[in-house]
Specification:
By secondary structure, this protein is mostly helical. About 65% of the residues lie in helices and about 5% in strands.
């Protein structure tokens, strides 16, 4: 289609309309896809959109005229229509508009075997995924587990032992995108696990302190290194909440700008905490 002259695409689309599936549309250039969409009926567009991930379906429908959008949405199944309407309710280029909604989530108390049985026993689950989200009792995300890890781990192992724990920034941005944080700011703050922040800082600080002592044989330097790691981990957790929430209050998409501010502030605090404590302790070269 992309190599076909523009004045011949309409005829080609009409001739091959029954052969155009969702995968073809997902890979087309935007300008070609828009031309073809104009030649299809609302029912045909609805069938194609229903087979796509939500973000791809939204990319097709959002550029249509309002009346055409309504016709396509009326022709879709209720569940598919609700997901696309929710996405279209967010501003263009925002996280809420762009994010994919098809995901698989399992509780953190399950084992790998429980997760595998769940994936095999529910045909309604999405089939195109590479990771599984792990959630707590309030359905808040606490980590992710790559599909390859699930397949290679014994069934008896708790999924919480092999998952990759979510960073505070990712959790808060996702919560904002799904409007969980707009209603109650305290619900966002509850997402911060100070225990995890302290544990991460203590673990990294201990390793760094041991390495520092092995190389420099200076107990004071080792203690300062460990304390700086704990402090920086706590700051990262706090900033990971406050920055995206503040940007959201200022009507700035946190998914676009948060990482820059968080990285800068944690880097500055890392240097300040380590060098500041070293100077206060009286260490010098």
């Amino acid at each position: 289609f992309e190599l076909t002259p523009g004045d011949e695409r309409d005829a080609l689309a009409a001739a091959l309309a029954d052969l155009l599936d969702a995968d073809v549309f997902a890979e087309m250039n935007d300008y070609v896809r828009e031309d073809l969409i104009d030649e299809l009926s609302a029912t045909q567009v609805a069938d194609i959109a229903s087979e796509l991930d939500t973000d791809d379906a939204v990319a097709i429908i959002e550029d249509m005229e309002p009346e055409d959008q309504r016709e396509v949405l009326r022709a879709m199944e209720p569940d598919d229509r609700a997901a696309i309407e929710e996405a279209l309710g967010y501003p263009e280029e925002s996280a809420g508009r762009l994010m994919q909604r098809e995901l698989i989530a399992v509780p953190e108390h399950w084992t790998i075997g429980d997760a595998i049985d769940y994936l095999r026993g529910h045909d309604e689950l999405t089939t195109d995924f590479w990771e599984v989200f792990v959630v707590d009792g309030r359905h808040h995300p606490v980590g992710t587990c790559a599909l390859s890890w699930i397949l290679r781990t014994p069934r008896s192992v708790p999924i919480a032992d092999v998952m990759k724990r979510e960073q505070t920034l990712a959790v808060v941005v996702r919560a904002i995108a799904m409007r969980n944080s707009r209603n109650n700011i305290h619900a966002v703050l509850e997402l911060v696990s100070w225990f995890v922040a302290i544990a991460n800082g203590a673990a990294l600080g201990t390793v760094g302190a041991i390495g520092s002592y092995v190389f420099f044989h200076n107990p004071a330097l080792s203690v300062i290194f460990a304390l700086a790691m704990v402090l920086n981990s706590l700051v990262a957790g706090l900033v990971g909440v406050l920055v995206p929430v503040t940007l959201d209050k200022a009507n700035v998409d946190p998914a676009v700008s948060s990482a820059v501010f968080v990285t800068t502030m944690t880097d500055v605090m890392g240097f300040f905490s380590f060098l500041g404590m070293a100077a206060w302790w009286g260490l010098s070269g």
